Amino acid sequence: MITRLLVANRGEIARRVFRSCRALGISPVAVYSDPDADTPFVAEADHAVRLPGATPAQTYLRAEAVIEAARAAGADAVHPGYGFLSENAGFARAVLEAGLTWVGPSPESIEAMGSKVEAKKRVAAEGVPVLTELDPATVTEDDLPVLIKASAGGGGRGMRVVRVLADLPEEVAAARREAESAFGDGTVFCEPLLEGARHVEVQVLADSHGTVWALGERECSIQRRHQKIVEETPSPAVTPQIRERLFTAAVAAARSISYVGAGTVEFLLSAKGTIHFLEVNTRLQVEHPVTECVYGVDLVRWQLAIAEGAALPERPPTPNGHAIEVRLYAEDPAHDWRPQSGTLHRFTMSDVDAEFAVPGGYGLRLDSGVVDGTVVGVHYDPMLAKVIAWGPDRASAARRLAAALASARIHGVLTNRDLLVNVLRDKAFLAGDTDTGYLDRIGLDLLAQPLVRDVRPSALAAAIALAHAGRGRLPLGWRNVASQSQRRGFLLGEERIDVDYRFDRLGALVVPEGPQLVRASADEVVLELDGLRQSFAVSRHGEVVVVDSAQGSVSLGVVPRFPDSADKVAEGATVAPMPGTVVRVSVAEGAQVSAGEELLVLEAMKMEHRVVAAASGVLAQLVVRPGQQVEAGAVLAVVEPSEGSQS
């Protein structure tokens, strides 16, 4: 029996495994890197062991250090979570050789599916349809478009779409760097890009006694950078006939490697209804909560029970309802999905029915790795949380999830929340018309729009000014002359908004020619606009003020009364959009560059990000070099604009 379990992972998946440990009476142990020392998962563990360092290579990818931590904590079992070492056969074998229980499939099963190339050959021998594997060195014009993939991992890292043959060498090199950074293995291969297809996967669960369950399919087609952001079960495109073919192929793939534990068999589903095997993920998946809700199971609990030798019932449970999950990321979808970092000042989601567990009935589930005050760093994946709605049907689940996200209070870092809500309310999504090209087809110009579009900016500024004025018994800047007004300035993006307000002789706040004040306190203002009362929650974090309302959330900058000239950035300067490491410098100092041309590449959160010239001109100064770490806002280069060029 397992008594003390070390979770060789971090963030929300560590907290998720801890939840099942508590239910079973198992003592959870955490390992943590230096940046993770003050995070929620470390605080929630019974014991925690430090892995000195910051990057994955220094910490969570060091198998020997993780096993030594298990010994030091007195753990008798190891759960790998997902990512990091979860699909590393060498790590699984080392855990077993150390006399510990490995909560996962055998090292031999992991090895069999660890190479996507070899995995395809194995399942093809079982009659499972596969896509042709291509050697990057032999790809021709006739093979295009192709998808470059990392052989040793997933999560969108090491994946690139190539449509022009001349781009192939550079994209292969970039894919290898990302794969090496994320998985410690830079092996990549190519396969034909099946356009218009859906990404559909089957959850399997198998014991050591020969029983294999297929626990439904999940639709995971909505992806950015080949990484899923919306997942649901069942798929709106899967008919009973297709489902039978998927289940048959998934069980055959699992049996071909004597699989034990929870795993996922991934497929592409073409518009014509044909299925093509992609890979077997020999671990738990990020999107497992939707399966748990619909099938009423605790997959982590079953992982632990199977590791202890338990047998599954002969038949799996019957599905009930529909569940949709979204991944909430600290990123900016409107600017090439740029990851964000900083302090998450507030993270509040109302009406949550369960955390890290299936709700007692249809409802809302939250699996989060963060709380108020969590620092979002640059070393790891920028996912903050998974939000899951379970309802009697697809429409009700989508509506509940959209409403929960829209009303959430998320302050301090920019997220993809507004995009997720727009997707959940999109007509094409609600009609089930999704495929792996959905985001490109609908367009980020629509999907990345802010939720708050109908509230006048002046009302937002008034709410902030009045909340600020209501903080004391006497208003800030109170005057004895009723005709004098206060003025505050705010920035909504690039737009400056000024609001005037004053107190009348009775002490009432008045906004001339603006919304009518109903009431105001330090953190809430109720205004009447065109006969309609609206409530605005106001929070200030340094020089940023966040206004939350029923429509969504808006962040505004406070215009300082006395600007500091030292804060100005030199004209033509290109600054780092995020903290990161300079991977490559693409242009030499003194070279002529065009607007939009790549100047350098930054690596942040295990992904590469191109930094381009804002205007055409001469690269007058290059401040950084490859391998250098930079902070957000640091000057990287200075371009002297050519005469007549536009920024």
TrEMBL record:
<dbReference type="Pfam" id="PF00364">
    <property type="entry name" value="Biotin_lipoyl"/>
</dbReference>
<dbReference type="InterPro" id="IPR005479">
    <property type="entry name" value="CPAse_ATP-bd"/>
</dbReference>
<dbReference type="InterPro" id="IPR005481">
    <property type="entry name" value="BC-like_N"/>
</dbReference>
<dbReference type="InterPro" id="IPR011054">
    <property type="entry name" value="Rudment_hybrid_motif"/>
</dbReference>
<dbReference type="InterPro" id="IPR000089">
    <property type="entry name" value="Biotin_lipoyl"/>
</dbReference>
<dbReference type="Pfam" id="PF02785">
    <property type="entry name" value="Biotin_carb_C"/>
</dbReference>
<dbReference type="Pfam" id="PF00289">
    <property type="entry name" value="Biotin_carb_N"/>
</dbReference>
<dbReference type="InterPro" id="IPR050856">
    <property type="entry name" value="Biotin_carboxylase_complex"/>
</dbReference>
<dbReference type="InterPro" id="IPR001882">
    <property type="entry name" value="Biotin_BS"/>
</dbReference>
<keyword id="KW-0547">Nucleotide-binding</keyword>
<protein>
    <submittedName>
        <fullName>Acetyl-/propionyl-coenzyme A carboxylase alpha chain</fullName>
        <ecNumber>6.3.4.14</ecNumber>
    </submittedName>
</protein>
<dbReference type="InterPro" id="IPR011053">
    <property type="entry name" value="Single_hybrid_motif"/>
</dbReference>
<dbReference type="InterPro" id="IPR048429">
    <property type="entry name" value="MCC_alpha_BT"/>
</dbReference>
<dbReference type="GO" id="GO:0004075">
    <property type="term" value="F:biotin carboxylase activity"/>
</dbReference>
<dbReference type="GO" id="GO:0046872">
    <property type="term" value="F:metal ion binding"/>
</dbReference>
<keyword id="KW-0436">Ligase</keyword>
<dbReference type="Pfam" id="PF21139">
    <property type="entry name" value="BT_MCC_alpha"/>
</dbReference>
<dbReference type="GO" id="GO:0005524">
    <property type="term" value="F:ATP binding"/>
</dbReference>
<dbReference type="Pfam" id="PF02786">
    <property type="entry name" value="CPSase_L_D2"/>
</dbReference>
<dbReference type="InterPro" id="IPR011764">
    <property type="entry name" value="Biotin_carboxylation_dom"/>
</dbReference>
<feature type="domain" description="Lipoyl-binding">
    <location>
        <begin position="568"/>
        <end position="640"/>
    </location>
</feature>
<dbReference type="InterPro" id="IPR016185">
    <property type="entry name" value="PreATP-grasp_dom_sf"/>
</dbReference>
<feature type="domain" description="ATP-grasp">
    <location>
        <begin position="115"/>
        <end position="308"/>
    </location>
</feature>
<keyword id="KW-0067">ATP-binding</keyword>
<dbReference type="InterPro" id="IPR011761">
    <property type="entry name" value="ATP-grasp"/>
</dbReference>
<feature type="domain" description="Biotin carboxylation">
    <location>
        <begin position="1"/>
        <end position="444"/>
    </location>
</feature>
<dbReference type="InterPro" id="IPR005482">
    <property type="entry name" value="Biotin_COase_C"/>
</dbReference>
<keyword id="KW-0092">Biotin</keyword>
